[in-house]
Amino acid sequence: MSDILREVDDAMRVEKLVKLWEEHKTAIIAGIAALILGTAANSGWHSWTKHQKAETTSAILTAQDSKEPLDALVKAADANSSSYKTLALMTAAAKAIEEKKYDTALAMYDQVIAERAAKPLFRDLAIVQKVNVSLDHGKDLKADDLLKEIDAVAANDKSPWVGQGLMARAVVKAHLAKDIKGAIGDLELIKQKKDLPASLRQRAQALIDTYQLKGQS
Q: What total of structural domains would you count in the chain?
């Protein structure tokens, strides 16, 4: 699978994708979605925590270094309010993903989303991460439910996570709602946003090419 994904990343041109598509149709669809949604599920979060106050980050790292880091982080979240609680919950979710406790991670994200004191920055990231983890590991998924949730981020140009929100929404549309046209529309929006990372826009183009080929097969 990794060899196929590397080829897709290295070759964005349609003609090469056509050849790959003919040889690995199913693997490419599943692999690209996993690459985009599953790669470094916590990368955005780790980038944010680098900028937090030293004492807050130190407290979270202390919990992470304990014998039972997940339990320690959950207890820290329960014992605090305000931004520290949100930080602890998000870090607990990341740890749960590392331990493949996906239901626990989803519960942590739900708590952040429901937390009134949580800053929009955290809440939007929690929504994106929840949808991503649900797509990879959720049960009894319903496209309408996930779309309703991710719309809050994908439709908000002021959110720093709007690009990730559009990407997640596109995959939900393509793989759960079977709406290839709608998925491509979201991916085109990513390409148009020049302030988004080039790598994200390149991945959007790769998925556009793949979904177009899927529609032609």
A: 1
| Cβ burial, residue 204 (10 Å; 0-12/13-18/19+) | buried
| DSSP secondary structure string for all residues of 154-188 | HT-TTSTTHHHHHHHHHHHHHHTS--HHHHHHHHH
Summarize pLDDT for 11-49 with one digit per residue, the tens: 444 455 555 555 555 555 555 555 545 444 455 555 555
Residue 109 lies in a domain: yes
Question: CA-to-CA distance for 165 and 160, rounded, in angstroms?
Answer: 10
Do the domain assignments include residue 63?
yes
From 89, 82, 79, select the one nearest 111 (Cα to Cα): 89
| Distant-in-sequence, close-in-space partners of 114: CB < 8 Å, separation ≥ 6 | none
Q: Does residue 196 fall inside a structural domain?
A: no
**62 domain-assigned:** yes
Range 168-172, long-range pairs (CB < 8 A, 24+ positions): 168/37, 168/128, 168/131, 168/132, 168/135, 170/204, 170/207, 171/33, 171/36, 171/37, 171/135, 171/207, 172/131, 172/135, 172/143, 172/146, 172/147
Q: Find the domain containing 97 and state its range.
A: 42-139
Cα–Cα distance between 114 and 117 in angstroms, integer? 9
What is the pTM assigned to this prediction? Answer: 0.68
